[in-house]
Amino acid sequence: MPDDLPPNSPKGQHPNTGAHFATRMSHGGRAGTRVHGFVNPPVHRGSTVLYPSCAERGSINARSLEQVMTYGTAGGPTHFALENMIAEIEGGSRALIVGTGLAACTLPLMAYLNAGDHSLVPDSVYGPTRRISDGMLKRMGVETTYYDPQIDAAGLQALMRPNTKVVYAESPGSHTFEMQDIPALADVAHAQGAKLIMDNTWGIHHFQPFTKGVDVSVQALTKYVGGHSDVLLGSITVNTPEDWAIIAGAAREVGHYASPDDCWLALRGLRTLAVRLKAQEAAGLAVARWLDGRPEVLRVMHPAMGSHPQHALWKRDFTGACSLFGVVFDPRYTVRQIDAFVDGLSLFGIGASWGGYESLALPTTNYITRTATRLDVLEGPTVRFHIGLEDTADLVADLEAGLDALPR
Ligand SMILES: *Cc1c(COP(=O)(O)O)cnc(C)c1O
């Protein structure tokens, strides 16, 4: 490692020695005493990297899979500090930072799938991931079958084809929050040599993908890692040198890159991630339970609540929850009435994304696509809630006033 690379703790030791999550988020990826004594690594911006001789420039090519600085697109110290932190959060060996969460979802699909291949994607997948499967991947000769996110091993086995190279998973599913039996899916995929790629954005560190059979784990760092609704980034984490070569090679072919300024913001977000997540997990559950007790609400879709149909899977595989969940309102209300309720809230913003410090409410009825399963989720109008860092009592009062104003 070149000397100007920030070490991962003030004393220059990698902190992954059994310390708790909050401690590791505080001590990882720091500059220590190397940068004039400043705690944090600086933002290293750059395209050209200079070498003292042609021979040294030439010798670097053989080390392209290492964290060496060859050119801006290959990353610099700010990228590498964040990559190391994300790899550690997910329990993988290497992580790659890309410009958006969506880029993190799409790059592994492009990397592992060839013309004539087949992939299996859950019907509850993040919408834009469905878009590339039906768009660019299809155009390039890759066929996608959407499957019921609640499928069991036998069901997935029945959908596997000789050319199935990727099983994609996302647990819980976008907008509808179905939990998936990841270890069971992994067994089926691996029996045939297929890769299991998982979108772990909801899980963050509460789901450890590589102990559950996942080969490639992607996250939108835009969400809780950024944490302040001011940065877009994605991560792709793997746990073998072979997978790293495939992912890093594909990123280089396509030209993926993330701004070091954004990596710096994500590193800053990581310092408070543990405390934010803990507070937001508790607040999210409190608001979800309160909503569950209201007569206007048919059901709440929160995997950490006992009423969730796959709560047992969450309990088995996750160590916690984030503060994103869905609500199905009573079918006696129209989408227009629920839209008016959301419009009337004063503390909940209306908008995409989540994981920031501010609460959001997003009507989702028209965002849910199903091609393999029935739209059972739509007994009534649906709203996705993200609970931020406001006082829970204020959020509940805001919701209460809105619900009380709905027709009886
Ligand atoms: C937001 C999100 C993404 C994409 O992240 P962007 O940074 O907005 O591109 C991917 N997967 C899931 C589950 C998401 O919620």
UniProtKB/TrEMBL annotation:
PANTHER family linked: CYSTATHIONINE BETA-LYASE-RELATED
Keyword line: Lyase, Pyridoxal phosphate
Provenance organism: Teichococcus globiformis
InterPro entries with a match to the protein in the record: Cys/Met-Metab_PyrdxlP-dep_enz, Cys_b_lyase_bac, Cys_met_metab_PP, PyrdxlP-dep_Trfase, PyrdxlP-dep_Trfase_major, PyrdxlP-dep_Trfase_small
A UniProt-annotated Pfam family: Cys_Met_Meta_PP
Region (Disordered): 1-27
Enzymatic reactions: L,L-cystathionine + H2O = L-homocysteine + pyruvate + NH4(+); an S-substituted L-cysteine + H2O = a thiol + pyruvate + NH4(+)
Enzyme class: lyase
GO molecular function (one): cysteine-S-conjugate beta-lyase activity
Protein name: Cystathionine beta-lyase
Pathway(s) served: Amino-acid biosynthesis; L-methionine biosynthesis via de novo pathway; L-homocysteine from L-cystathionine: step 1/1
